[in-house]
């Protein structure tokens, strides 16, 4: 049985979005279709997209590797046949600390685990830590962050500032998370500069992202609506290319890129030595 015209259009848009960036989670693909105004933002539409992506992978129209499930992952134990086989892992894994020569310490905080793949790909070359909150972070996560920032501020006996770049939804909770993060870190006598980089009201207008209504059950809704109006948009709706560019720009303008390049040069020399030692064993 052939697909209906609406289903064909959804599949075409999904393949287009995934061709621009993959892998994505089902949730990411769904919000990309919402932002492109292919579907409405409803639970029924989400399930329809989920079913369509399953069918398209079964028929080979969408590669299995283009869709990922970041929650259901096997916890495997790393093993190697011998030291020479481990040498390749060592080559890929060894990273020299870039923060010893940086004027400030930078971290990125992300509200949505579904987007962490995009963020990890962008941040890895810079050695920037990604903290995924999945909403409001628990106190243990906040305490651990405070310890990291305290150590970073006194790295090698010199003081330097810490900047946290925050990416989250534009809704009552998403807008309040920056305040919450600042206040809870201050409980541990840590006061980094916290900047919300996305999603902003300007992003919604600039990229014409389709809004939803703010959740009235959220205790922060009344204050949010009074300030911004009855509008709510998830970070997932922002085009992946825009999100990558925003993240890259915000990180790079706070780092000494020349210092990182010098660290990478020394790192390459050390990797060759390490691989030679392991391969000869």
Give the tags.
single chain, 281 residues, alpha/beta, Dna Topoisomerase Vi A Subunit, Chain: A, domain 2, 3 domains, 4-stranded parallel β-sheet, 11 helices, 51% helix, 8% strand, globular
Describe the structure.
This protein has about 280 residues and is of the alpha/beta class. The chain folds into three domains: about 5-65; about 80-100 and about 255-280; about 105-255, Dna Topoisomerase Vi A Subunit, Chain: A, domain 2. About 50% of the residues lie in helices and about 10% in strands. The protein has helices at about 5-20, 25-35, 45-60, 85-95, 115-125, 140-155, 170-185, 200-205, 220-230, 240-250, 255-280, and strands at about 105-110, 130, 160-165, 195-200. Strands 2-1-3-4 form a four-stranded parallel β-sheet, sandwiched between helices. Strand 1 (about 105-110), helix 5 (about 115-125) and strand 2 (about 130) form a beta-alpha-beta unit. The longest helix is centred in the last third of the chain and has 24 residues, at about 255-280. It is globular and about 60 Å long. The model has no long low-confidence stretch (mean pLDDT about 90).
